[in-house]
Amino acid sequence: MPVDLHWDMLGPADLDRIVDLHARAIRGMGSDQVKPEHPEFFAALLDGAGRIIGARAPAGDLVAYGVLQDGPDPGTRPDLWLGWPADARIQKLAGSSVAEAYRGRRLQCELIRRRVELADPDACLYATAAPSNPASWRSLLREGFEIRLLRRVYQNSLRYILARPARTAATPLAPTDEEAARPLDGLPLDEQDRLLSHGWRGRFVAPAVCALVPPEVVET
C-alpha cells in the first residue's frame, strides 16, 4: 500500500472531487458490476447521512474514497433478510473508488479496514457486491465479511449481500473444513443461491480460494 497518502474525513468542499473520481472509476462498467451514484447521494452523506473517508496524493489529489452510510439504503433490508434484531444499529459500506494509477495496491482492502474501524462498535455492518465484480467481494471477504445471500436489488441488478457482525460481538471464525466447502469459482449462481438460502456462507478458506461453507461449519 502506498505510504505517501494522506487520509482524512471528507467534507462538503470535496463533493466535486468525489463525484469526479466515482465517474472515472466506473467508466465502462455496467450496472451488473457497479451501482452508479448521483451527486445528491454523496452530498447527503457529507451532510450527515454517513461519512466518507478519503486518501490524497502528496499533491492533494483525491485518489481513493470509501463510503460509510448510516442505516440501510432503500431496497436493501439486511435487518429482515439476515434476521438481525429489530433495534439493531446498521451501517453500510456503500461503495468506494480508487484512481486507476493507484489500483493493485490493496487500497480497497485498506478502505474496508478503515471504515470498519470508523463504524460504531455496536453496528451490524453490511455491503453489496456484484458477482461479476470479484475484486469487490474478494476484498470484503478478505476483511472479515461473509457472503450471506444473493438478491436482486438496485433496479433488478444481482448482488451478493455480505455482512459482518458488530465489533463488540465479533468472535473468531470457526476453522473451515475445506473438504466440505464449495469453491465459488465455477459454481453456477443458481446453485450458489440455493446453498445460501440454506444457510451456507461465503468466505476465504485458503489464501486464494473463496468458497461457500455449510451451516454446520459456520456454527461450530
TrEMBL record:
<dbReference type="InterPro" id="IPR016181">
    <property type="entry name" value="Acyl_CoA_acyltransferase"/>
</dbReference>
<dbReference type="InterPro" id="IPR000182">
    <property type="entry name" value="GNAT_dom"/>
</dbReference>
<protein>
    <recommendedName>
        <fullName>N-acetyltransferase domain-containing protein</fullName>
    </recommendedName>
</protein>
<feature type="domain" description="N-acetyltransferase">
    <location>
        <begin position="5"/>
        <end position="165"/>
    </location>
</feature>
